[in-house]
């Protein structure tokens, strides 16, 4: 993915970017015509709705009879809550769920006295009261952030946003999704690359090609696995800009009605989808793009579902990763094992790639609003949970995923894995043909002109180090590694701080997604992270051969 941000977000839809279509009463009438059992008028403050699924009546009261605010007109609050309620109904959320959401948003407005700074302590005490479990506190924060995101014209003091985000992020941390190590991800990535570059019979192709599509698509576009499985057979459209992919969006839907967003995809992905379409259509027509040719039988064989994909991924690990290429899966294993580049400690889960995609979008310098739309989030603030993943998962090996360098290997069972796994050639040892050796304080330089492109010799491609150098200067070299790790941490913190600014102030013209200066800062900061990653990776690779030989003093 390049920093020119070629993905097209113009046709995507999320709650915070939705315009209020038509008058409130017209929208109420449209819902009634569509069969929603709603007893309401735009001028009434109590609306009743009957949930046929649960055979239960629900109501929501929009009035603020016991509340007055000098700063805000309560009529504005009522209109906002009604409009949000209608929008949730139009998007087919369950009745009980959305009634609860609106009631809690109303409680927050009252407890904060219209987000008055003088009431912030009282608001925290009574809205986020201590007896609640951490996950309940997080849900209350998430709900409120979604509502504030919807209220485009409602100005909320930064102190309130900081407070709510703190509860959303902090109490979400214990439940952070555990991701596989970057080594396990890189091994799987290389296996997919090598396996699908080889010739296969049609049966093999149909068996496993959904894995290839999933890996190449969902690592770039952060869609849920259920949405990937629901891609329709005719999901591609072509116009003068290129190929667009229709993405099904289905989270929290009351009647499982699917809405579609369209994003511009690369010609490479489009070509792989078209090729797959041709092959499966020649065997049997299907409603979904993916088919169940060799996976678990389904009640509706023309529809691909999550169970089909989960079974297929497990089969790929067993038959291809382990049996064909000789890797050993140690997940949930209690047996003793020896250190080996063939060890895999954690399988990749179907939804892990959605998290990888969010991280990669951040590291490419995308604005939080763009990321939220592409991820199908109801609120821009939903991506706060992924900030923790960036700090947890990022390390020097991640550079292999970011640089996307082609690795030309024949068979994974050759000597490729014997010493250092997934290491690009970085001239870590001395070449006998080298004739220029300009001594330095540590190591030597092989550039006769010494035209240094960097400030420090050890970051230059012309720098070399001998075993004696490594032994004699071990402590200093370790300090250099520690310093580079600190630089990487500072770069990550800077990028996260910019993202947080974009989240909190995304309604401000200075920090919104159309502001070129702020977008430039995001791209520049993301480049600094990748540069720091790359420099750290080079250093570790140059020292690792000596570390593995156990020669350090």
Automatic annotation (TrEMBL):
<dbReference type="Pfam" id="PF00589">
    <property type="entry name" value="Phage_integrase"/>
</dbReference>
<protein>
    <submittedName>
        <fullName>Site-specific integrase</fullName>
    </submittedName>
</protein>
<dbReference type="InterPro" id="IPR002104">
    <property type="entry name" value="Integrase_catalytic"/>
</dbReference>
<keyword id="KW-0233">DNA recombination</keyword>
<dbReference type="InterPro" id="IPR013762">
    <property type="entry name" value="Integrase-like_cat_sf"/>
</dbReference>
<dbReference type="InterPro" id="IPR011010">
    <property type="entry name" value="DNA_brk_join_enz"/>
</dbReference>
<feature type="domain" description="Tyr recombinase">
    <location>
        <begin position="223"/>
        <end position="389"/>
    </location>
</feature>
């Amino acid at each position: 993915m390049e920093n020119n941000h070629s993905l097209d977000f113009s046709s995507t839809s999320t709650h915070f970017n939705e315009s209020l279509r038509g008058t409130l009463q017209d929208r109420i009438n449209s819902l009634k015509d569509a069969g929603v059992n709603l007893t309401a008028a735009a001028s009434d403050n109590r609306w009743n709705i009957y949930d046929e699924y649960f055979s239960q009546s629900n109501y929501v009261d929009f009035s603020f009879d016991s509340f007055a605010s000098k700063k805000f007109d309560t009529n504005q609050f009522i209109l906002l809550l009604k409009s949000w309620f209608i929008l949730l109904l139009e998007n087919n959320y369950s009745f009980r769920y959305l009634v609860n959401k609106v009631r809690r948003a109303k409680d927050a407005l009252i407890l904060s006295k219209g987000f008055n700074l003088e009431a912030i302590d009282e608001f925290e005490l009574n809205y986020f009261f201590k007896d609640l479990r951490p996950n309940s506190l997080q849900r209350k924060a998430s709900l409120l952030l979604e509502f504030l995101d919807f209220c485009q014209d409602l100005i909320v003091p930064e102190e309130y946003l900081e407070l709510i985000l703190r509860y959303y992020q902090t109490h979400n941390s214990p439940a952070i999704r555990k991701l596989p190590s970057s080594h396990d991800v890189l091994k799987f990535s290389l296996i997919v690359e090598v396996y699908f570059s080889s010739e296969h019979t049609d049966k093999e192709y149909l068996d496993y090609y959904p894995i290839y599509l999933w890996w190449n698509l969902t690592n770039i576009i952060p869609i849920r696995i259920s949405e990937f499985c629901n891609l329709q057979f005719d999901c591609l459209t072509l116009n003068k800009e290129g190929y667009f992919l229709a993405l099904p969006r289905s989270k929290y839907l009351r009647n499982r009605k699917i809405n579609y967003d369209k994003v511009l995809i690369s010609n490479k992905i489009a070509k792989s989808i078209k090729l797959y379409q041709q092959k499966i259509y020649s065997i049997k027509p299907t409603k979904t793009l993916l088919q169940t040719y060799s996976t678990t039988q389904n009640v509706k064989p023309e529809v691909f579902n999550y169970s089909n994909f989960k079974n297929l991924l497990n089969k790929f690990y067993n038959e291809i990763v382990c049996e064909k290429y000789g890797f050993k899966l140690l997940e949930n294993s209690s047996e003793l094992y020896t250190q080996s580049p063939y060890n895999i400690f954690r399988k990749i889960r179907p939804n892990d790639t959605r998290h990888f995609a969010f991280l990669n979008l951040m590291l490419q310098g995308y604005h939080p609003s763009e990321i939220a739309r592409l991820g199908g989030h109801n609120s821009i603030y939903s991506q706060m949970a992924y900030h923790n993943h960036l700090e947890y998962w990022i390390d020097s090996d991640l550079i292999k995923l970011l640089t996307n360098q082609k690795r030309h290997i024949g068979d994974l069972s050759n000597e490729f894995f014997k010493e250092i796994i997934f290491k690009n050639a970085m001239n870590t040892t001395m070449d006998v043909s080298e004739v220029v050796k300009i001594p330095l304080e540590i190591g030597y330089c092989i550039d006769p002109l010494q035209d240094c492109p960097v400030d420090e010799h050890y970051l230059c491609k012309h720098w070399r180090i001998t075993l004696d150098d490594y032994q004699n200067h071990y402590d200093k070299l370790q300090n250099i590694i520690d310093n580079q790790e600190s630089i990487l941490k500072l770069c990550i913190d800077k990028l996260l701080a910019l993202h947080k600014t974009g989240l909190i102030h995304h309604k401000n013209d200075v920090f919104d997604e159309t502001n070129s200066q702020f977008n430039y800062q995001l791209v520049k900061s993301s480049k600094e992270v990748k540069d720091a990653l790359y420099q750290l990776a080079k250093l570790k690779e140059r020292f690792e051969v000596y570390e593995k030989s156990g020669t350090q003093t």
